[in-house]
Amino acid sequence: MTLKRVSQSLLARLIAFGLLLVILGSFARYYLLAKYLREDLTQLVSAQQLAYAEAVAQDIDFKLRERLRLLQRLAATLPQTLLDDPERLGAWLAERHKLNPVFSLGIVVADTRGTVLADYPAAPGRSGGSLAGDPDFTHALKGEGRIGRPKTGLFTGARLLPMSVPLRARDGSVRAVLIGLTALAAPDFLDRISHGRIGESGGFLLVSPADRLFVAAGRPELAMKPTPPSGVNPLHDKAMDGFRGAGVTTNAQGVEEVSAIASVPSTGWFVVARLPTAEAYAPVRRAQEVVIRQSMIAVALVLGVAGFFIRRMLGPLHRAARLAERMTAGELPLAPLPVVRDDEVGLLTRAFNQLLGKLTASQVDLQRMAHHDELTGLPNRVLLADRLRQGLARARRKDSRIAALYLDLDGFKPINDSLGHEAGDIALRDVSARLRAVLRQSDTLARVGGDEFVLLVTDLASREDCAGVTELARRCIEAVAPPLSIKGHTLRVGVSIGIAFGAAHDDPESVLMAADHAMYEAKKAGRGCYRIAEAASSPADTEPLPG
Ligand SMILES: Nc1nc2c(ncn2[C@@H]2O[C@H](COP(=O)(O)OP(=O)(O)OP(=O)(O)O)[C@@H](O)[C@H]2O)c(=O)[nH]1
């Protein structure tokens, strides 16, 4: 029941409408903000990631080329006589290595058969060993230097990157092969991949697409591990096919990330700079949180402030409704409601007051019509009966009397008959006016029939007062007697009066009947006179009145 009342309340509906607007607005802002911020951030983070990836790729490319150039310089400067003296060759290599120790796992010199002549730093079993089947050795033997493929070293067992260059005789023939081995984990080599961080959770990967291998990775467990099969990570698949640039993708671990790919031209590798979107889009989440917080504040404001103001605005309406209810219940008299403000509520209250005014006026009219004669405006039989009851009640309380004078016009019918009903009405109104002029204010003159009137006189406290009633009857006869001028005709009517007195024990009907009978007596006595009823409480029958 209470819920139904609330749902029907204008206040509740206005607040609900306000809340709906706030919530819809919040939803729209929440999603639009997220959408546009995400788009902008994707662009920004992609550009940033690409810049990182390119910088790292260039750095790695530079280091690789530098190493290859160094190896070529060594090959060009190595005194060929040392090839026949492994001990001195080893010392020469050690000297060079100390000057620039970039080949952390050693510089190896092998003759054209692949036999290792010397190495530094030395690896167990390498010197005197054979590199005959080694692809880097074979390649250099053909006269070309190259950066090899990452692999696990034959003698060192470490993950390394080999580089090989030929050592040529004066006639241009290959006399030996120089191989430089760099540990993938060597300092200042791929550390930007393995230790570089992007934000809190992002990092780098170095991929060799030809080997389908992670050469190095920020996550150590990925280093030298195969790349995911195609179909797992769409952006990785594109990168393997040669795409360079940035995009949003989901990696093999199911983590969505913004990734950028840049080439390492010297090896055909590529660097991936990756940042999980959970971190990249953190500002989006923060903005969404702000929107949610704002919305909660807006909801609180709508509930509090708007609720307060709407309540205030509708307050006069509530008060007016309560007043109207109490008037309807009869607890308050009907009265215009106070118009507090000049707004819609005031307009409604004013309209209500106008309606109330009309209602009250028609109620007064109805009341008047129910108690008055329409033609003369005099009280009718109903109101007379009431006044008669009141008069007798007062007589009981004050030990006084009342007198009823029953008046019947003489010779009225001929006016109707000769001049018409309208003339008769005029005569009745004129006679009423003359009789009214004779009365005291406390007397009641009522029209009780066609040409019959009753004059009620109350509070007759003394014998003189009672004697005054006959005097009043005489004045009535005199007042009616002068000729009437109706529609250019001079007409005469008279009046016969029957007087009956009433005291404490009398009932209204018997007093009226007594007066009526007395009036007939007056008619019989020749009209134009009054007679006093004997049956009712005439002053003669009762105890003498004081005075
Ligand atoms: N014009 C008019 N006539 C009315 C009205 N009510 C009653 N009458 C008429 O008043 C007349 C009353 O009749 P009577 O009392 O016999 O008339 P009267 O000539 O005074 O006769 P007496 O009383 O015997 O002297 C009737 O003709 C009614 O039709 C009214 O409201 N207007």
UniProtKB/TrEMBL annotation:
Family annotation (SMART domains): GGDEF (SM00267), HAMP (SM00304)
Instruction: Name its GO BP terms in alphabetical order.
Output: signal transduction
Instruction: Please report the stretch or stretches of sequence annotated as the HAMP domain.
Output: 311-364
Give me the segments passing through the membrane: 291-310
Q: Name one GO molecular function term.
A: catalytic activity
Q: Which domain of life is it from?
A: Bacteria
Keywords for the protein's UniProt record, in alphabetical order:
Cell membrane, Membrane, Transmembrane, Transmembrane helix
**Name this protein carries in UniProt:** Conserved hypothetical signaling protein
Organism whose genome encodes this protein: Azoarcus sp. (strain BH72)
